[in-house]
Give the backbone structure.
Amino acid sequence: MSTPLRALGRHIILELYDCPEELLKHPAEAERFLLAAAAEMKATVVGSNFHAFSPYGVSGVVIIQESHLTIHTWPEHRYAAIDIFTCGPLELEAGITSLLSAFQAKRHWLRELERGLVED
Amino acid sequence: MSTPLRALGRHIILELYDCPEELLKHPAEAERFLLAAAAEMKATVVGSNFHAFSPYGVSGVVIIQESHLTIHTWPEHRYAAIDIFTCGPLELEAGITSLLSAFQAKRHWLRELERGLVED
């Protein structure tokens, strides 16, 4: 008989397209949006680190007790790449809704990956 | 005629199974392994942040000029979840080889995702 597997982590790949360019340029604003999403998810924030690129673009990470959120933006393409990696029973959907709203993405693409398949 | 698309980022999803438990327990060691992989890739490290979980397990991120590397470990399952997100011409394969060797994974699973599909 086959052994059932379970996933240790949930990983959301979120592609945001057609965002207002202005929302993708400022590290402090991106950080505020990701921290708000972490709060919506009921995650426990351990730390965060955001920085700007030259001439523009933002890179950032929010470390949560339950894993992490990251973002990289390309304002010139009105695109942001967001990852949400979690373990434990967080309210992921609330975090995703918060991010889609904050960055005003007109189009998005989302995939969920199961990470760490182990025997139950 | 269809418009060709190109990807702004390359994202490696790396699942390491059957690693020696001892290698997955210590934040300083995991940090050393990820920084070594970043060096192999010829990435420019901007910062890093690693911490331990109770009773065990490590969570960490290395921020590079070209995006990020992250890790989360479950020593009790001998499993580590690693992500490498890059833009620009890095030597990704050298970084992956370095990580597989450092963590002594007996089994691994790798997928590459293209992030940020835009018109050329």
Q: What stands out?
A: The helical segments of chain A are 27-40, 92-102. Chain A has a mean pLDDT of 94. The first helix of chain A runs from residue 27 to 40.
